[in-house]
Description:
By secondary structure, the protein is mainly beta. The protein is built from one helix and four strands; from the N terminus they run E-E-E-E-H. A four-stranded antiparallel β-sheet has the order 2-1-3-4.
Amino acid sequence: MATSVRLYQRLNTEGFPLIPVPYSRNGSPIADKNATTFYLRYRAAASATGIPAGANVLEAECSAQSA
C-alpha cells in the first residue's frame, strides 16, 4: 500500500530532471514552463514507483487527488 502520492514534472532541459511540482498558497499546482510530462510517484514495498499522469498539470493533479 502506498504511503503518499506526490506529483512530479519532467523538464525539457539538459538531463531531463524529474522534480516535484510546487504549489501556490491557495493549493494550485504550478507547472514549470519547460515541463513536458507529469508523473505520480509513490513508495510501496521499499521501492519508488512512477506512473505517467499526462501532459497537463491540472489533469495530473486530478489524478493525484483520486489516487
